[in-house]
Write a structure and sequence with these properties.
about 325 residues; four-stranded parallel β-sheet; 9 helices; six-stranded mixed β-sheet; alpha/beta; 12 strands
């Protein structure tokens, strides 16, 4: 429950132990989940299907008291629950009642509604509950690791780099992120350029084509998110970022179609193109032979360039202000 950085890492390990993993997180990407063999489901489906519940969501108005009497009545009898998120996502009294009724067989709690929990808490001194005192990242080694990670992240942000550990953003390993960095600005720039060519009419399909020597091994999640960000920032008043780009695109009815074509070379990418499924353009030359508005680009010397609008070749540097 909750499929951000911690939740996804727990899922990786659970999969390694042979468990079948499902997840509920309204802001998670289906592609991200599928990449590690996890299926995203609704809250009710998660409650009905789960045998072990591991909680990793923040405490918000939507998650406060999420596990209450009603939720516990929907789970399988004898399920186990682990809460290492925030105490408020579980109603302590409701959990105690579920334990008494054997609806929940066992619970492991690192967090509580009130910390430290009062001596008369119904969850303390029970054989079916394991309690720890909100340890989180409290070990000496973890504290040192967090300090180093924060310092590196701040330095990277001040340099204008994207963070590999952004919460709920597309999970891209640091080494892959370093390779894709020059194409991040290009992706957003192509999305921005393409949507500004659309006349006052709608479109549904967004076709993204990557020319890459990597073939199907290319990880496109970050680049796709940046294309969507470039498009949506021009047509919505919502704050668009790497976390919610896919969700906002889905909510607006956009269908994202990705394809990878083989290319020669040693770089991770040689070029990209973005096509919008409409022929109604402010600039008729922007419409390609497939009756789509299309733009293409590449990176030269670390700088993104627009190389084609429709079927016409251009050579224009792309300037984008990146905000993840």
């Amino acid at each position: 429950m909750g499929f951000g950085k911690v939740g996804s890492e727990v899922a990786r390990r659970a999969r390694g132990l042979g468990m079948i993993c499902i997840a509920h997180d309204p802001f998670a990407s289906e592609a991200k989940a599928a990449a590690i063999g996890v299926r995203l489901v609704s809250l009710n489906d998660a409650l009905a299907q789960g045998d072990f519940f591991s909680l990793h969501m923040p405490l918000t108005s939507q998650t406060k008291g999420m596990f209450n009497d009603d939720a516990f009545s929907k789970i399988k009898k004898g399920a186990r629950i682990i809460n290492v998120a925030r105490g408020g996502v579980i109603d302590d009294a409701a959990l105690a009642r579920a334990l008494d009724a054997k609806q929940v067989a066992q619970a492991a709690l690192d967090v509580f509604n009130q910390e430290p929990p009062p001596a008369d808490s119904p969850l303390i001194n029970r054989a079916d509950v394991v309690c720890t005192p909100h340890l989180g990242a409290s070990t000496t080694e973890a504290q040192e690791g967090v300090a180093v990670e924060i310092a590196d992240a701040v330095i990277g942000a001040l340099k204008g780099e994207l963070a590999a550990t952004a919460v709920n953003a597309p999970m891209v390993p640091a080494e892959v992120l370093a390779e894709l960095q020059p194409f991040v600005a290009l992706s957003q720039g192509l999305g921005t350029a393409a949507v500004q060519l659309v006349e006052d009419s709608g479109f549904t399909d967004v076709k993204i084509t990557y020319a890459s020597p990597r073939g199907d091994d290319l990880d496109t999640r970050l680049l796709r998110a940046m294309v969507i960000k470039g498009i949506l920032e021009q047509i919505t008043n919502s704050t668009v970022n790497l976390v919610n780009a896919d969700l906002l695109a889905k909510n607006r009815g956009l269908r994202i179609l990705e394809s990878i074509v083989p290319a020669e070379g040693r770089d991770v990418l040689t070029s990209m193109s973005v096509a919008l499924g409409t022929s109604k353009s402010r600039f008729s030359a922007a419409v390609n032979s497939d009756n789509d508005i299309s733009v293409s680009g590449t990176v030269k010397g670390g700088t993104p360039y627009l190389t084609a609008v429709g079927n016409f070749a251009v050579d224009l540097a792309v300037q984008v202000c990146l905000q993840a």
